[in-house]
Amino acid sequence: MAVSQGGQASELPEVLTRFRAAVLGIGNITGPYRGYLYYWKTSRKEALDQVAALLWPYLGAEKRSQFEAASSLAKRPVTLIWDGCMVPRDIEVAWAAGFFDGEGTVSVGTDPRTGRYSAINMEIPQSSAAGLPDVLVRFHRIVGVGNVTGPHEPRSPWSRLPQYRWRSGALDDVEHVAALLWTRLGPTKRKQLDTSIRLRRAGKPPRVGNRDNSNYV
Question: 217, 192 in Cβ contact below 8 A?
């Protein structure tokens, strides 16, 4: 069982350290690989049972199916029951914050004519061979803004599966999602959101010499 996350060569990604704490210290974080990629990992059968029990109410259908398949292969069948109607709103928001923390991006773009920041984009990409990922539908339902689109041709060389995205390019939507998730986000995503929203509001041009019209922060 593994969770991957990119980061700085000298610092463990906070998303992984928070995840390990949430699963009661199970597993280890290793890396960096290729200079930036870290993994939380465990290979113990008992750990599969423990992590499944801890996360089961908050997982999407695809991850629950993966847990069930892995448990079956290990001859340790999962018998947990999940009822989405039983999940309180604060737990749903916490789930959405964790999902965006690990998978989401936010960027600002400039008008090529004026050089001023004139656009903002917030999105969560997911790949799936089985149609629209339910995690995107769930996130969209929780935050109440943006749109889910797809399938799209893969943009990443690491995936050949059809791509789907939740996204919004409206400043009001980005501010709404930021306010909703803020207290449950890690410092990295808070900084990214704060910087992007501030730049978009101010509309000031980027530094001289920046040729890229889309700035991920």
Answer: yes
